[in-house]
Amino acid sequence: MAFENDVENNTQSYALFSNFYFWYFAFVGVFFPYFSLYLNWLGFDKLELSILLSIGPLTRIVAPYFWGSLADRMAIHKRILTGLSIASLLIFLMLSDVDDFLMMSIFLVIFSFLMAGILPIGEERTFSALSKKANLYGRIRLWGSVGFILAVIVSGIIFENYSLIFFHTVTVVVLIVLVFSIILIPLKKENINVISHDSIFTVLRHPGVVFAFFSFFLMQVAHGPLNGFFSIFLEELGYSKFSIGLFWGLSVVAEIVLFFFLPKILKRFSIKKILSLSAFLAAVRFLLIGWCSGSALVLCFSQLLHAFTFGAFHAAGVAAVNRAFTYNSAVRGQALYTSLGYGAGGGLGVMLSGLSWSEFGGSWVFTGGAIVALVSFVVIMFVPRIFD
Fold first, then answer.
1. Can you list the alpha helix ranges (DSSP code H) found in 223-339?
2. Which distant-in-sequence residues (6+ apart) come within 8 Å of 164 by Cβ?
3. How confident is the model at residue 336 (pLDDT cuts 50, 70, 90)?
4. Nearest CA among 246, 331, 320, 372 for reference residue 73
């Protein structure tokens, strides 16, 4: 299929990339909010939960960079992307009757390792398509938010009325559609080039880049309580599964609005300003969740802050990495962002949250997340302007 760089003028390419984001984040919308509840329903205790929930983020320390390097080296991004989605589906099919901790751990390591390569390569394909119109990324990415919110609400209704026994079935259906959405992604002619193995380290020698990646890491540590235990926290407070789904959905509605206006935001404000504001608001958000979640109104407000704490921060982070890492290091740059942030940071955050949950309680664990977010804010504030 002929591929054009100007996605804005190529409606079909725009729609196909939007379709990919829609179904990838539809999977996230089914899996992310309800997997902890599913594991809890299967009878795993809090320590086992913290270990199982940290497997996904921890595999993202290595997996994205591994798949990204392979894609860069062999220049077969589309084939790797398709293969990862099919293999992930086949592995997840095997999880249907697993309720043993060891077996669940093994399957999750394999499944997470495969899934961790999909988004970084997909992001690189998108930016490659957009070329000089990278500011349009938000308009494509917002369809991922639409997919997430629809999935989290619909699956919440299913699980509320028919129990979590249908969790596996619903997830498999979404994964099947995701495979087809990846197959439909436009294929760009790729040439195998000689890769400079030093290029990525040359970029990392810049102090601003190092501090930026450290802030990405800290923000994902701060999100550990939210990512791993937000649903369980609300369930302990007496909220229904449907209500929990609505709170997750509200956060993504705010994210959709943010992504719609993202092109103008990225043009008007520096990446450093967006990152620092987002980190500060993350601290505010986690304090509100920790101590004011008894009020549905306050909880709604805290979820609206997701537009900044995830949406704006992620978009600015991806844009920064895209500017710093170019040509043959593009996928590896995005993979490193995923590895250090969502992998190392996210895994450590979830694990620390699980280990301290029983001892200190949810409110204090979210307070810890707020403190780490403030440290990320300080790191961003005291470094040179990043990639602007």
1. 224-236, 241-268, 271-292, 296-304, 306, 313-324, 330-337
2. 34, 37, 38, 41
3. confident
4. 331
CA 195 and chain centroid, separation: 28
Please give the backbone phi and psi of residue 116, each rounded to the nearest 5 degrees, phi first: -65, -20
Domain boundaries, the chain: 8-187+195-381
Rounded distance between C-alpha atoms, residue 275 and residue 378, angstroms: 11
Amino acid identity, position 36 = S
Tell me what pLDDT residue 342 has. Answer: 85
Per-residue pLDDT, 193 = 47
| Residue where the block lists tokens 């999880």 | 95
From CA 194, how far away is CA 347, in angstroms rounded? 34
Collapsing DSSP to helix, strand or coil, 61 comes out as coil
Residue 208 pLDDT level (bands cut at 50, 70, 90): confident
Q: Which residues of 174-190 are buried (b: 16+ CB within 10 A; e: fewer)?
A: bbeebbebbeebbebee
In this structure, what token pair is assigned to residue 28? 């996230």
CATH of domain 8-187+195-381: 1.20.1250.20
